[in-house]
């Protein structure tokens, strides 16, 4: 079984490959995502949402990963086709039995909606 850090590494590797379907392997069936742009529940709806997001993502540059037991905090630059500069983003995930159960994204959404 993957450690929480390995789980979230696999999650972001899927982002970098633009492979939303591969994320089913690291998301719990009842995963809940919360962020400035919305709330999504369940693996199917999360994968569907990630398909949309990954269509505008050009790169993910991981700056730092911190782990404390089942919680993993990933700080990264999110590069998109919709923004001139990368968006500094923090992703806080709670991982249970090798799958992310909750994910919270924290970033300033103004470049995307403004």
UniProtKB/TrEMBL annotation:
<dbReference type="InterPro" id="IPR032710">
    <property type="entry name" value="NTF2-like_dom_sf"/>
</dbReference>
<dbReference type="InterPro" id="IPR037401">
    <property type="entry name" value="SnoaL-like"/>
</dbReference>
<protein>
    <submittedName>
        <fullName>SnoaL-like protein</fullName>
    </submittedName>
</protein>
<feature type="domain" description="SnoaL-like">
    <location>
        <begin position="9"/>
        <end position="96"/>
    </location>
</feature>
<dbReference type="Pfam" id="PF12680">
    <property type="entry name" value="SnoaL_2"/>
</dbReference>
């Amino acid at each position: 079984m993957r450690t929480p850090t390995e789980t979230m590494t696999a999650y972001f590797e899927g982002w970098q490959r633009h492979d939303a379907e591969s994320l089913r392997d690291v998301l719990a069936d009842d995963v809940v995502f919360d962020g400035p742009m919305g709330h999504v529940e369940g693996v199917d709806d999360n994968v569907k949402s990630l398909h949309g997001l990954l269509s505008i993502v050009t790169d993910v540059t991981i700056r730092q990963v911190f782990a404390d037991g089942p919680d993993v905090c990933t700080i990264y630059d999110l590069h998109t086709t919709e923004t001139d500069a990368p968006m500094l983003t923090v992703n806080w995930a709670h991982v249970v039995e090798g799958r992310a159960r909750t994910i919270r994204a924290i970033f300033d959404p103004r470049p995307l909606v403004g």
